[in-house]
Give the backbone structure.
Amino acid sequence: MKPESIVLTVAGMCFGVIVGWVLGSLDADRSALSRPPAAAASEPPPAADEAQAPQLDEARVQALTTILKNDPGNAGAAVQLATVYFEAERFEDAVRWYEEGLRLDPTNADASTQLGMTLFLTRGADPALEQFERSLAISPNHPRTLLNKGIVLWRGKDDLDGAADVWRNLVALAPGSPEAQAAQQGLQAIVAGRSGGAGEPAAGLP
């Protein structure tokens, strides 16, 4: 699953789309959304026999494992290894290595947030939201955390008002950022879902 596959649809977000969104948040320099919701919603999902399981990059795993063997305190290598496993949808391995990266560097808000989303995919919304609070304790206005917190509130807790509040705050704190652009898409999708169509955002929404 590549970062370019991040898509937020009006109808809802499937497992693979959430994974794509999270992968996109690993690289804040990329466009937050590669195509509009309408385009995504019009495309049927791939047939079961067309879907391909992501492949684990064994070479990267070996290289990073070697680094960690020689330098067990290398927090960056541990987080990179977690990301390799995440990209291959080996989420339990990803949890293990994100936790190790945070043990080595408890101030890494990015790793904490990625751990939160991995927990969401494996263990549900509540552990993810607890982890996001740890991320915000490290960096109170962390855009990636706010974006992902909104996703989990919406898709994991069905708390549309809570998600909208978080995303409005994100747009105000980091206007023009990839995370804010994604948050604006999310706000529009919430409004469209409530109105039963893909109309214009309601008054007061970005």
Observations:
- The CA atoms of residues 10 and 192 lie 7 Å apart.
- The two ends are 29 Å apart (CA to CA).
- Residues 1-14, 27-45, 198-206 have pLDDT under 50 and may be disordered.
- The chain has ten helices and no strands.
